Amino acid sequence: MVNIVELDVRPHLSKKIEPFQLIMDTIKELKHEDIFVLHAPFKPTPLLGILKLKGYSSTSERQESNHWVTTFVHKKNKITAEKVSAVIQSNTTRRHELASTSLNNSDLDDATSSCEGYPPEMTVISESDLLSTPDKTWTMQEPTITLDNRGLEPPQPMMRTLAALERCQPGEVILIHNDRVPVFLIEELNQHGCLYAVEDQADGTAKVRIEKG
To answer: N or C: which end of the chain has fewer CB within 10 A?
Structure first.
């Protein structure tokens, strides 16, 4: 039996709540045979790269102007693409049928493993464990540039950081302090071959140490 775990982050984003940690906590609880279905108002391009590093392939489908459905399957899951599509379609149809007959919430929960908020008994893990690059060696030198991006509206934090990277030489370090984990920036760092480590702060902000590749 295929287990589908769904997460809808549209309510979080509509309230300007960063859902990255929620997504990663959900991923952490998945078994390799599970299928993870993410509902978002846009195609989560940066997330695709991050989860690819963790062994997940993905397909994204735009269902409405503000509704993208992205399906993640782990490489150790031997289910075929055709079977994934059939399971997702069957699950969607069943949920619509359940909704039309006004079944209660407990019945809906039995029909699909759905995560509208934080998973029960969720283990909160450090973002540094999720987003660091431990397979490479850090020089741990003092930062060449330190940027405080707190309070800036997107995309200013990302633009400032990328501009600072342009000024740096390979091996030099930038330390940034952001209001939240800079998910879109992390995708850029992966593409540029930069080392990075995220340190979550007690106040909910995040510091990122970046070494130019």
So the answer is: N
Beta bridge partners of 40: 68
CA atoms of 196 and 198, how far apart (whole Å): 7
Per the listing, tokens 């289910």 go with 79
Nearest residue to 144 via CA among 176, 106, 119: 176
- Residue ranges for the chain with pLDDT beneath 70: 1, 16, 80-140
Enter the tokens of residue 59: 């397909």
Confirm if 137 and 31 have CB atoms less than 8 A apart.
no
How far is the C-alpha of 42 from the C-alpha of 17, rounded, in Å? Answer: 15
Q: Crossing angle for the helix pair 20-28 and 45-53, nearest 10 degrees? A: 30
CA–CA separation, 200 vs 119, rounded Å? Answer: 20
- With residue 165 as reference, give the H or E element that holds it: helix 156-167
Q: According to the model, what pLDDT value does residue 192 have? A: 82
Model pLDDT, residue 110 = 44
What single DSSP character describes residue 112? S
Distance (Å, whole) CA 30 – CA 212: 33
* 36 token code pair: 């993870």
Can you state the percent helix, strand and coil of the chain, rounding each to 5?
A: 35, 25, 40
Output DSSP code: residue 76: T
